[in-house]
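Quarterly update from the structural biology core.
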Amino acid sequence: MRSLLCAAGAAGILWAAAAVPAAADEPDGFTLGDPRITESSGLAASRLHPGIYWTHNDSDDGPYVYAVDGRTGRTVARITLRGIGAPRDVEAISIGPDGAIYVGDIGDNLGGTWNHVWIYRFPEPRRLRDATVTATQFTVKYADGPRDAEALMVHPKTGRVYIASKKEDGGGALYEGPARLTTGGTNVFRKVAPIELWVTDGAFSPDGTRLVMRSYFGARMYRWEQGGPKDIGSVGVPIQQQGESVTFTLDGRTLMYGSEGRDSEVKPVGLSGAQLPDSARSAGDAADGDGADGAGGKGSSGGQKLEPGFVKGAVVLAVAAALVVGVRRLLRRRS
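Predicted structure, tokenized:
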């Protein structure tokens, strides 16, 4: 019993450490309060409208994209896409250097059996209001056969589009599209690197030097070198109902994590050390080192993020210990 109580105390300490508020220079999180947004599956920070985040529902919604104010969580515009077919399984959103928004209708609820998927592209609106815009539709296939994917990233310098498949049979992978997408035929995406993660979203840093990939319960940061990713370590993630999306803030110093569900929260995790994009690193950040497993973020005790699985285990242990203590006290009273 004593060892169990000690474990409960340790769990309480870990829980307190996990609850340390974000660093002062991190943006606040926000809640997606729009009742129409129930399955937010992608997230992209607007470059034209600082503080605005673009998102969309997963499926069964329609050709809609939502602009959300990161200060209030209020939807300030719903964009309806015309000129495309009926969306099937929209999973990702990204913004390219051409100022266009790219929407990835790349999911496959049939387990990777659709022989093609789609990407939609439209100019980011200069005025935030409900509107209907004409989008361009691109047909996409993978060189090695159908894949289930939830992450689409547009490199902010080259404009090349990448898709990350989920880690299923044969493992996940990063696929590279052609230098320029075309409407004149099928755009073939080819595998350029394995990604050992059950990827639910990804994003390039604004300067293009970092690539983050997230799963439901974890994330990895990659340095982008010579057109490919180099793994530099895990990144802290917040505990969420169903972790789905991620994007960098415009300064590159913070990751914003989104989740599915009604009234879902978007939560910040600050970066430091080797995980900061090159343009965001100061001399002090560089001194933190470029080790293979860089700093996990600012918003935690000691500059490191606790892995969600570890925190959850600690919480379960604490609850179990509390139940045992309660039963013990009850037995004492009866005796």
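The first strand starts at residue 30 and ends at 31.
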